[in-house]
Amino acid sequence: MIRKILLPVRGDGKGDNVFAHAATLAVRYKGHVVVAHCRPRAEDLMPYGIAISAPLRKLLLSQSANVADQVEDGMRKELESLAARFGITLSDKAIPGVATTAWIEEQGRQVDVIKRHGRLADLICVAKPDVDRNLGTNTLKAALFNTGRPVMMCPPLDSAPERLCDHVAIGWNGSVEASRAVAMTLGVLEEASEVTVLSTGAEVNGADSESLKEYLQARGVNVKLLRFKSSRKIGRDLLQHCAQVGADTLIMGAYSNSHETETVFGGATQYVVDHSGIPVILVH
User: Fold this and answer.
1) SS3 annotation, 85-118
2) Which is it for strands 223-227 and 89-90: parallel, antiparallel or unpaired?
3) Using CA atoms, how far apart are residues 197 and 226, in angstroms rounded to an integer?
4) What distance in Å separates the CA atoms of residue 234 and residue 199, rounded to the nearest whole number?
5) What is residue 164's DSSP assignment?
6) Domain range for residue 221?
7) What is the DSSP string of 48-78?
8) 10-residue block means of pLDDT along the chain (284 residues)?
9) What domain count does the chain have?
10) Domain check: are 263 and 199 in the same one?
């Protein structure tokens, strides 16, 4: 069951949408959303390789700190507004049976903040990377490769999702990553109204999709199996079949091949990351 959700934010304008997804889950599971803002150190904003006088350096440090204070204050107020909008209680700690949210502020690199807080989160919510603006890729990578926890990639939406984790699709290929994805999201699967296993039936040296269906049925999951013909564009096929069955969330193992290989040469995970229009829970 999802009890603690981490939401790393950085003032890039994507926080509201991701919070809408996290809030929807918090209300559904009575969970606690930790909104973690990574505040850059003023020293890191200094011009690199340029000699500046001590008075100018002091002035720049002061101005950087003031700007950071303004950003933090604005984001705190935005969180308060969003919490009220979604009916979530502001609380530094989780309250059993109540959807809550808290704000934390830390200095340093965002990857370190994600490591520290993500490793004890049931789910990490991040924005879908914006390739055109070069935003979000490092956040997704940090969450996937440095925490060992499930990561929900949230697509950009104009409003909160009407359904989330209600009809869940599983992209199954019998791999260790896929197995881990199922194991780490059992709480989601057991609470879903419907689960559809999507598979080509080509699980080489891995557990087959029929065995996964039986495994989930033994846990009381309402699950069905959909096999489709294998092609060289598995990522595209997964998304098409998600739309076909009406799934609102996809769960899959992430980057069975290396991230660099998939990014350069293409792969199922990278296609889904680039093209998905529904939330995707990824596990590496």
Assistant:
1) HHCCEECCCCECCECEEEEEEEECCHHHHHHHHH
2) unpaired
3) 6
4) 10
5) S
6) 167-283
7) TT----HHHHHHHHHHHHHHHHHHHHHHHHH
8) 93 84 97 90 62 74 70 86 95 97 90 94 96 82 96 90 96 93 98 97 84 98 95 94 98 75 61 96 96
9) 2
10) yes
